[in-house]
Amino acid sequence: MDRNLVDTAELADRVRAGDRRALGRAITLVESARDDHRRSADDLLSRLVAHAGDAARIGVSGAPGVGKSTFIEAFGSTIIASGERVAVLAVDPSSTRTGGSILGDKTRMEELARSPDAFIRPSPSGGTLGGVARRTREAILVCEAAGFGVVIVETVGVGQSETAVADMVDTFMLLIAPGGGDELQGIKRGIVELADIVVVNKADGSLESVASAIAADYASALNLLRAAAPNWRPRVVVCSALEKRGVADVWETVLKHREALRVSGRLRARRAEQAQGWMWQEVSDSLLATLRQMPGVAGRLSALEADVAAGRTTPGAAGREILDIFRKGHLNRQD
Ligand SMILES: Nc1nc2c(ncn2[C@@H]2O[C@H](COP(=O)(O)OP(=O)(O)O)[C@@H](O)[C@H]2O)c(=O)[nH]1
Ligand SMILES: [Mg+2]
């Protein structure tokens, strides 16, 4: 993206026509931190948004090594065989490598990467979770406008990225696998409460019986949780991504989940809540950025943080002082 001026009208047309290079450029644009690119990206998105929203948005989460990439390779191929086009995006705020984390995983997604009906985008490296989440949400819109009927967002099981991804998809899937040492990790960490579908992978060879036992444990744990939607209780599906068995069952379960969401009106409601949440996220992110950039604020903030940590000031009083700084700074600017 070296040109300063992006012809967003032309780029939008080419994205909508399904031009893959244009799609790649459009996503690069929404990922850019440059101010002029940001303006072009906003303009591009405003042209595309009316043509977005039709895809099945699916999140795939799970600890490193459970087989997410192998699963997405098999799952994506199954979806394509059913006649849909699939885009795969990755969220990995911990990734510092240039090109992002799933680039290496492309070797596990060889078949999918070669398919003209698939588009695989590695996660951009660096940035805050908020920034990464916004870029991913916008990349979803771009892929939808380009006509992809399914958008898969892969995230590694680190910290808050799962919550962020659950907040941007219709169906959130948690992958687990036997042999990870701590089989009930997802339950302990509370991610299970976000999951619409739990997939127990690696149900093959000597691991097959262990996988069934884990699936039974999860099924009973999920029964204790409240229903995520009026007519949907999280399901557990067993598969082997490596041997491509059970993967079609996962796709069928996704379709059932979508149907349940649609019938109950939750699909529309979930998306509406997400869109409002993103708006407020934008507001709070940029207010915080503005606050931190105000002259003289940085030093005061770290002093207040230290005071709060040491118990010299209450969090409430320190918070009010920060807001006072913000209000005064804002008034001075308007003078
Ligand atoms: N036995 C078995 N191994 C699998 C399966 N799926 C993935 N693996 C292996 O698990 C390892 C990690 O897989 P990968 O897809 O990179 O996991 P990710 O880190 O979650 O993306 C690789 O060695 C895979 O070959 C499966 O269904 N069965
Ligand atoms: Mg992977």
Kindly summarize this structure in a few lines:
The chain has 335 residues and is α/β, with parallel strands linked by helices. It is built from 14 helices and seven strands. The chain is globular and about 65 Å long.
What do these coordinates show?
The protein has 335 residues and is an alpha/beta fold. Helix content is 55%, strand content 11%. The protein contains 14 helices and seven strands. The protein has helices spanning 8-16, 20-31, 35-48, 68-81, 102-105, 110-114, 129-145, 161-166, 185-189, 208-224, 247-264, 266-293, 297-310, 315-334, and strands at residues 56-62, 86-91, 118-121, 150-156, 171-176, 197-200, 235-238. It has a seven-stranded parallel sheet, with helices on both faces. Strand 5, helix 9 and strand 6 (197-200) form a beta-alpha-beta unit. The protein is globular, with a radius of gyration of 22 Å. The structure holds guanosine-5'-diphosphate and magnesium ion (MG). The site of guanosine-5'-diphosphate (GDP) has 16 residues, from helix 4.
